Records
---
Amino acid sequence: MIKVIIFDFDGVLVESVDIKTEAFRQLFKDHGKAVEDAVVRYHELNTGVPRREKFRYIYQSILEQKADEAVLNHMCSEFGGLVKKKVTAAPYVHGAASFLEDNVSRYTMFIASAAPQAELEEIISERGMGKWFSRIYGAPVSKKEAVQKILIYAGVKASEAVFVGDAMADYNAAAANGVQFIARVAGDRDVFGNIQCPRIKNLISLEKVILQI
């Protein structure tokens, strides 16, 4: 029986994936269309990866430039400035708010996100979402480590937890810990290939899927 639900944040609880895609495009638009498109393509193939790691890859492998800590800090700060207010105002994934409200006493719920911890906590606080979650984990804690911490904190077996995510990073974090996984697939963005796992378009059907696990 499932006792713990771990949620990714962007694209699972809040419709904020496109906000972050546009931020990457905006930050590199002065480098030309080819670079801009390459950056966006890399980002879309690696959702769920911390932005700092993305910027390091972009500078080293796409721009072929050095990216020291000062550059990475600057880019992360610029990115946060572009997205924080928009993510705070973004709509919920259909069914998310009602599921959380209806099930807060039934399941122990957590967030494991690649967004920076402080930024994530501010957004969740400003949206009034904190009441639904026992703990919130963001970067620099990896999702794999976050799942480990959650299992220990909640005192449950891996088989009693499920991770709801929309990226391979989410699936990998769940699989590494033996936790079951439910994929939220928006539109035609199915990044999971031939992986066998339940897929949902929104959170309206989440309770039914969890009960079938």
---
Amino acid sequence: MSMVCGWLFGFWRATVVVSFASTTGATLAFLLSRYLFREALQQRFGPRLQKFNEALHREGAFYLFALRLTPAVPYFAVNLGMGLTPMRTRTFWWVSQLGMLPATLVFVGAGAAVPSLKDVIQRGPSAIVSPQLLVALACLGLFPLAVRRVMSWWRSRPV
């Protein structure tokens, strides 16, 4: 969807729309999970979840930020899982907004680099491959590798 918005609306407008729309949707899923499932799970697994909740209270924002940057965990699972924690909604919102922004920029940029059908008809098939599109596709491939490298460096640094 981010790529389609980038293609339709251009880079900057699509970045704003996609960024706020994705964070709003994530926050709604977070709140639904919190108000539908949290109480039952806390009652059933309370003693087992106590240490996890304490750790999340201390490092929750960083943990959520790392999950948002890492494409290994689907966003819907992060949204629902975080709704079961004591994390404040405001914290969830701003960390999600910031954590999802790099991927949003990459995907919207890739979509914005795709030429319109009018350009392809006028200039021929050579209009499809442009330097902007090649850079955007390279960013799509390199982004997960860069995130993995940064997270490995972050974990290995002395505390």
